[in-house]
Structures are given as structure tokens and as C-alpha cells.
Amino acid sequence: MRNQVPLDISVIPLRPAPARRAVAPPAPAPVPAAPAPKEPLWRDLVGDVLRRERLAQERTLKDVADTARISMPYLSEVERGRKEASSEVLAAAAQALGLGLGDLLTRAQGELVRLTSRRAPAGRSTPRASYDGLCLAA
Asked: Which domain of life is it from (predicted)?
């Protein structure tokens, strides 16, 4: 014979079903405060100065790299701020552009001052002393 299961059998769960709650609309996400701008990296500043000067002279990357005796891919990475160039490489690139190393670094320092003076930190009440020198430390 065939076992027939009556249609009125109910399933008994092992765990009670969670109580249904009314779903409230999600609270609006808080608007995050704008992140503090990052300090510019020295390699980015120097690379920007090199690229601007090269383009102002309407010279190609290959021309400047050959004159400076630097590989073209390496000079490209220095200009884009991807590589931290040694002082010898920077001096060679600057000289190839008709600049001295001091000229290159002075321009980069001027750019650093220009970028960082735009966003003086809030809450700093003491005036900053003006400094027009260049100080590099390793």
C-alpha cells in the first residue's frame, strides 16, 4: 500500500522564526568631511618644473634625455613624479634644460610655497614666519 500524507500537516521549525519588524527607511548617510589635502611630494614638484621647462622650450623628451645622458623612460618617470631622482640625475636634467640645480630646486620650492600657502591649516593661530630659503635634509 501506498502511504498517503494528509494535506493538513504543518512543518514545525527547529528555531522560531524571527519576529518581523516594521522596516524603517535607512537613515541618510552622514556627509563625510572633505579629507585634508595631502602635502605635495617633492618628486612631483621637481618633475612638474622639469616638464614645464622642457615644454616651454618646445623640446622633446628624447632630446632632453639624450643631452642629459639619462634614459628617456627614466626621465619620463621623473617628470611624472614616479621616481625619486638622485641629485646627479636632477643636475643633469636641469643642465640639459639650461638651468642649474639651484634654479631647478628654487622653482620647485616656489611651487611648494605657492601650493601650501593656499591651504593654511584651520585652528593655527600663531602666524608662520616667512622663510625664503631652501632646506633639504636626508
From this structure: Bacteria
Kindly report whether the global pTM for this prediction surpasses the value 0.85.
no
pLDDT (tens, 9 = 90+) of the chain, 138 residues, equals: 566 666 666 766 677 677 777 666 777 777 777 776 788 999 999 999 999 999 999 999 999 999 999 999 999 999 999 999 999 999 999 999 999 999 999 999 999 999 888 765 554 444 455 555 555 655
- 50: enclosing H helix or E strand: helix 42-56
